[in-house]
Amino acid sequence: MSATDDGLTMHWMRLEDVFEKTISYAQNYEDILLARVFPGPEGFYIDVGANHPVFHSVTKLFYDRGWSGINIEPSPVVFERLRDDRPRDLNLNVGLSDRDGTLTFHESLVYHGWSTFRPDLAQHYRDLNVAMVERPIPVTTLARVCEAHANRPIDFLKIDAEGFEREVLLGGDFRRWRPRVLLVENSWPEAWEPVMAGLDYRHAAFDGLNRFYVRAEDEALLPAFGTIANVLDNFVPYEYYRLIEDLANRTGARTPPPSLIDAIRRDAPRVARRIRSAVRRLTLRAG
């Protein structure tokens, strides 16, 4: 807190304030929206198109809190890092489609998130002078993965398949395995939204990059998606956190000990409940 030239008092963020915030690793803060619904230390996810275990990861926040799940990543290069960083998860180096088989995977070794099973999309990237390597990759279905490995209720399912979302959805059995929340990257939604229409899910939010859905049995969760990730969620993007942490280390600034960080993480569910309660009170007042 400091005074400005005009006499106003400004509450500037302190270094220690940054280390008390929830870190969002996801590209568009999808993990923050999900954390509103799932604030606890235990849960189960399935991540289709998991990619890097940290950078732009939707599940890293939850893994750090104690969750576990299934990561599906067809890229052999990225998979090695994923396997090494997520020993508590089940990591599968396969692709998903609407049937078993082998497909040509067009892999970008520079922009890993652009790798795809769609030849037309791969050609588009080649036209932009992005090198794409073709690899034969085994594919299976979401239903088979669930049959073999989903031995507990699925809290959320994330699908980011670079234009292959429709095939992934068609390969699921959503009558038998019903994730409470489903988020799908908004790639060619005209192809896969008709599939969603028959799964008995309610549209919850569109964040500009992904569409969130809540199963009909959990309609009570819909209000949690009513606003975008914001200051009341008390988070900091991982990219900023890394820069600040690096600066603190370089300058010798004091950082919280691991015991304090662990305590903050344990206290996160209580803090999340207080934030949701505050949002509800503000909403009622605004109404």
Could you please describe the fold and organization of this structure?
With 287 residues, this protein is an alpha/beta fold. It has 2 domains: 2-17 and 231-286, no CATH class; 26-94 and 146-225, Rossmann fold (3-Layer(aba) Sandwich), CATH 3.40.50.150. 36% of the residues lie in helices and 21% in strands. The radius of gyration is 20 Å and the shape is globular.
Alpha-beta classification = alpha/beta
Report the end-to-end length measured between terminal Cα atoms.
33 Å
Sum up the overall morphology in one term: globular
Radius of gyration: 20 Å
**Averaging pLDDT over every residue, what do you get?**
87
Architecture of the largest domain, according to CATH?
A: 3-Layer(aba) Sandwich
> Looking across the biggest beta sheet, what order are the strands in?
6-5-4-10-11-13-12
CATH superfamily of the largest domain: Vaccinia Virus protein VP39
What features would you highlight for this structure?
single chain, 287 residues, 2 domains, 7-stranded mixed sheet, 3-stranded mixed sheet, 14 strands
Q: How would you summarize the topology of this molecule?
A:
Elements: E1 2-3, E2 9-10, H1 15-18, E3 22-24, H2 30-37, E4 44-48, H3 60-65, E5 68-72, H4 76-85, E6 90-92, E7 95-96, E8 101-107, H5 119-127, E9 133-140, H6 142-149, E10 156-159, H7 165-170, E11 181-185, H8 189-196, E12 201-206, E13 210-215, E14 235-237, H9 238-251, H10 258-286
Parallel strand pairs: 3-14, 4-5, 4-10, 5-6, 7-9, 10-11
Antiparallel strand pairs: 1-2, 8-9, 11-13, 12-13
